[in-house]
Amino acid sequence: SELSMPPPQASKPPPPQAPPSPLLPVSYTIAGPCSLTDGGSCVASPNYPNSYGINEECTFTGVPPVELETVAFDVQGDAYAYHDYDGNGDPTDDCYVDYLTVNGTKYCGTSGPSGAVAEDGVIKWRSDGGVVGPGWKICWATRPPSPPPAPPPPPALPSPPPLSPPPPLSPGFVAAASEAKLRNLIEEATVTAADVSIYLPPSAKFKLGSQIRCGSNIKVTVASSGEGATLDGKGESGLFFLEGGCSLTLRGLTLVNGRAE
């Protein structure tokens, strides 16, 4: 009999590799009163953010080889710019009292080592016995990123334009701001047999539950302006009932939902 071989098993994918660890040294060493801050991503002058003291020295080793960021830097600078203390021919760049050293370059005043790389992994600090300053704080690119700035507030909406004042009434017109006022004016004109001109506000809506009757030999004018007023019969009214020679003129109005009697 033939021997049966088990089917080949599919190979398992390799386990995912862990992300590379941040570019940080295994350990730091601080000799002197300087302090390590921000979870090991920054170093600061003694007593920072308060002023440092006199006659201080410290050496910080283990700085990763990445660009430095100056968060704060304000120490005593070159008070006598006419004397070349370091002998390099430039009397304006001397740091001879309080200074930070990175790669052999001294930093003082308000110019910190932003962008410099501590190739030997060392930052040194020294202050003399005279004037002190607010101090410094130096970080490197491996520290946790700062949160993004808050977005600017949305622009304020423009104020709406002021409402236009209602147009002045034409001579001889009487304003009616409600259905009851409109009805009363026409009924009074019918009783007194006097012509009447009535003005309705623009965009006003008058709902008529019954017909408005005009029963005299008079002239009635109902007008509006702008968008015009609306007379709504609600499907129950024929809006107006004219008899006795009454003449009705409508201008600038919208008639809706009238019912034929």
Average pLDDT, all residues: 82
Largest sheet: 5 strands, antiparallel
Discrete helix count: 1
Element string (H = helix, E = strand): EEEEEEEEEEHEEEEEEEE
Decide which structural class fits the backbone. Answer: mainly beta
CA-based gyration radius: 46 Å
Low-confidence stretches: 18-26
Principal-axis shape equals rod-shaped
Name the helicity range: under 10%
Structure write-up:
The protein has one helix at residues 179-192; strands at 29-31, 35-37, 42-44, 57-61, 68-74, 99-102, 105-107, 122-126, 135-140, 173-175, 196-199, 205-207, 212-214, 219-223, 229-237, 240-242, 247-251, 253-258. With 261 residues, the protein is mostly beta strands. The model is unreliable at 18-26 (pLDDT under 50). The relative contact order is 0.12. It contains 1 helix and 18 strands.
Summarize this structure briefly:
This protein is mainly β. The chain has one helix spanning 179-192; strands spanning 29-31, 35-37, 42-44, 57-61, 68-74, 99-102, 105-107, 122-126, 135-140, 173-175, 196-199, 205-207, 212-214, 219-223, 229-237, 240-242, 247-251, 253-258.
